[in-house]
Design goal:
This protein is mainly beta and 182 residues long. It has helices at residues 25-28, 110-113, and strands spanning 8-11, 16-19, 32-36, 39-43, 47-52, 57-63, 73-79, 82-87, 92-96, 101-105, 115-120, 124-129, 132-137, 142-147, 164-169, 175-179. A 4-stranded antiparallel sheet has the order 3-4-5-6, with no helix packed on it. A 4-stranded antiparallel sheet has the order 7-8-9-10, with no helix packed on it. Strands 11-12-13-14 form a 4-stranded antiparallel sheet. It starts with 7 loop residues before the first strand and ends with a strand.
């Protein structure tokens, strides 16, 4: 579990263990955790660590701050091909397993480029933004659908609020957006 910007605490039994990963406050605030075996990716607003739970030590830090321009990283999503990361106003980026980080999508709309959460159904990325939900076809790199408070020409579907916190993809393929409410 994250620990109020001070590092990572883990409750693996009845005992609590606390790990401080850095003296830099920007690098201690964990905003994403994804585990595989005993290795965890811990995302921060500036990049991510790999952390080995068996040794209790960080293995490496990948600095992404220079890759995103002036946008802090707001969210992460990992898959077998690499790490997706959204920014606070500079769009969506992808860092492949070979270490190359590139801009994947930027619309030029500051609300759409402020990405709060990333999810995937395996074929598409579902971006939760300040301006609604954007569905991206991963293979074509194109937005195939945008959901906002205003229905588009292809659907009467609309959101109750544009500011989307996250999307949850159900097993049947339907998607539940979590919105702010007035």
């Amino acid at each position: 579990m994250g620990f109020y910007g001070e590092g990572l605490s883990m409750l693996s039994s009845n005992a609590l263990t606390f790990y401080s990963l850095s003296d830099d406050p920007d690098l201690k605030n964990i905003i994403y955790i994804k585990g595989k075996n005993n290795r965890y990716l811990l995302g921060t607003a500036k990049g991510y660590y790999y952390f080995d739970i068996t040794t209790g030590k960080k293995e490496q830090f990948t600095d992404l701050a220079g890759k995103t321009g002036s946008g802090d990283i707001s969210c992460y999503y990992t898959d077998d091909n690499g790490v997706w990361f959204g920014t606070k106003g500079n769009g969506l980026y992808f860092r492949s397993n070979d270490g190359i980080a590139k801009l994947f999508l930027r619309s030029g709309n500051s609300g759409e480029d402020y990405i709060r959460n990333i999810n995937s159904d395996g074929k598409n990325l579902w971006l939760s933004t300040l301006s609604g939900v954007i569905v991206i076809d991963i293979s074509s790199r194109k937005a195939i659908r945008k959901l906002t408070t205003v229905p588009d020409e292809n659907s009467a579907d609309r959101l109750p609020h544009n500011s989307i916190i996250m999307t949850y993809i159900r097993r049947d393929g339907s998607v539940l957006p979590a919105t702010e409410m007035d």
